[in-house]
Amino acid sequence: MSGPFSDLTDTIFADKSVLSESYQPEEILERDEEIEAFSHALQDVLFGREPENIFLYGKAGLGKTAVTKYMMEELESEVEVREAADDLHVHEINCNGKTLFMVVRRLVNDLLSPDASPFPKRGLGTGDAFDELYAQLDRLGGTHLIVFDEIDHLDDVDTLLYELPRARSNGHITDSLVGIIGISNNYTFRQSLSAKVKDTLMETEISFSPYDAGELRTILRDRADRAFVDGACDDSAIAKAAALSAQDMGNARQAIDLLRVGAEVAEREGDEVVDDAHIEDARTLVQRGRLRNKIRDQTEHAQYILETIAKLEERGDVPARSKEIQEGYERVADAYGATPLTTLKSIQDHLSDLHMLGFLVRHERNKGLSGGQYYEYELDLDPSIVLETREDIVQTAD
Ligand SMILES: Nc1ncnc2c1ncn2[C@@H]1O[C@H](COP(=O)(O)OP(=O)(O)O)[C@@H](O)[C@H]1O
Ligand SMILES: [Mg+2]
């Protein structure tokens, strides 16, 4: 009997999870220098000394999180065989979307004994959470490494970086040692710290540079060998994915995404081998996906403005002046039952932001004899992406 699933067989993937975001590679490739610097910075842990604070910098997709996870696992097993080392506790926390209170509370809850009741969500402040954190660190003793991933997203990072590194010298803890590992996608993070933190935070900095095409090929080949059935992925497909990602900031996450999506395209088309054409298609799909996320991140009114310009564009009425955009925008906002922004200035501010973010092209026009200048706008992306994304958002909001 043949049913809707009967002709689906897995001819391409041997283990697709190897290409997923959550997969942690057993082996880190092409990051020998960073790993060596990291080992040096961590060596105090092996001798029972107070750990150095370590900060990793580099753009997204350059292996900061993966290298840190790998180093923590390696360090945990090394500590087992080292006489001089104290017990090691590693805590990893992603700061994205969290307040300082949430972060410290999470740490406290990780440290509490399993039968203790969790630190309350309400009623107590960040200072109380720090007090409890210190009490728990000393209760457990040993060495604690706390990884703050995406630390640049934290609202009150100055307090954190002022408090924790001084916990011992200020007498808040006596029976435990603490080291901080901060990871930031943003090179200007350090500059944004207050002077008193910057001057006293003793740290080792490790910076991650973009991968070149050759390095990305090595990383991708290794993944492909684990993810695909033998022979199911052309070398030229890997070279293509590596070259495209190398051009675009050397991002390994993007390179792996291209390979996964390319393989999905091949599978859908019933092809048994992933080739460059599939990667080319994947690139378009991945770019569309990224644009959608970027649109979703905009405020409600900025999205109405984008939708308005997309509609003008479909009618051939672009480039358009801010006044024309405002009129269309008011109808769009009304249609969604929202109260439109009333001033032309607020529309112009949004237009200028959207231009800066790369959504819009802006043309400067001269008013002729009367002098003066004004702007006209059009989308810098396919209007159908905007309209489809808006439709998705409206549908999922119901
Ligand atoms: N040197 C590497 N070797 C193997 N895989 C890597 C390497 N660098 C990055 N990756 C993979 O690329 C993706 C992005 O890496 P990640 O560590 O999350 O980047 P970051 O934290 O810098 O944004 C992950 O899937 C990771 O496993
Ligand atoms: Mg990361």
UniProtKB/TrEMBL annotation:
The keyword Cell cycle applies. Gene3D superfamilies: 1.10.8.60, P-loop containing nucleotide triphosphate hydrolases, Winged helix-like DNA-binding domain superfamily/Winged helix DNA-binding domain. One of its GO terms (molecular function) is ATP binding. The keyword Cell cycle applies. Residues 306-390 form the Cdc6 C-terminal domain. Keywords: ATP-binding, Cell cycle, Cell division, DNA replication, Nucleotide-binding. One of its GO terms (biological process) is DNA replication. InterPro entries: AAA+_ATPase, AAA_16, Cdc6_C, Cdc6_lid, ORC1/CDC6, Orc1/Cdc6_arc, P-loop_NTPase, WH-like_DNA-bd_sf. ATP binds at residues 211, 223. Residues 50-234 form the AAA+ ATPase domain. PANTHER family: CELL DIVISION CONTROL PROTEIN 6-RELATED (PTHR10763), ORC1-TYPE DNA REPLICATION PROTEIN (PTHR10763:SF22). Involved in regulation of DNA replication. Belongs to the CDC6/cdc18 family. NCBIfam families: orc1/cdc6 family replication initiation protein. This is ORC1-type DNA replication protein. It comes from Halobiforma nitratireducens JCM 10879.
